[in-house]
């Protein structure tokens, strides 16, 4: 199946400008062109864009993404380096998850603290209302 740049943008969740930018900096191979000279993206292109999007979500710098993209053209000879890039990124993601988990624990603690205060205030209000009746 082939997709126009607008369709590829919609399916990938990226903007048309981002697709052009990725092509310009070498993250995305120039797509095929249709008879009118317009970009024509394949399912493989969309799969690659999905992978690039995940890499960006992990916080991988564009320069590392570019290195990975260049290495994939070298085939099996580059498996070791590509694996190393992904292994390093995985370690970074795990560190970030640990940081976020610590933040979540603090938020949970504070929310529980405010729940207790609200319960105490509600109990005090009920006692005050009963005493006034």
TrEMBL record:
Domain HTH merR-type: 1-71
InterPro entries in the cross-refs: DNA-bd_dom_put_sf, MerR-type_HTH_dom, MerR_fam
Gene Ontology MF: a single term: DNA-binding transcription factor activity
Pfam families cross-referenced by the UniProt entry: MerR_1 (PF13411)
UniProt keyword annotations, A-Z: DNA-binding
Keyword Nucleotide-binding attached: no
Gene3D superfamilies: 1.10.1660.10
PANTHER family per UniProt: HTH-TYPE TRANSCRIPTIONAL REGULATOR ADHR, REDOX-CYCLING DRUG-SENSING TRANSCRIPTIONAL ACTIVATOR SOXR
Stated name of the protein: DNA-binding transcriptional MerR regulator
Source species taxonomy: Bacteria, Bacillati, Actinomycetota, Actinomycetes, Pseudonocardiales
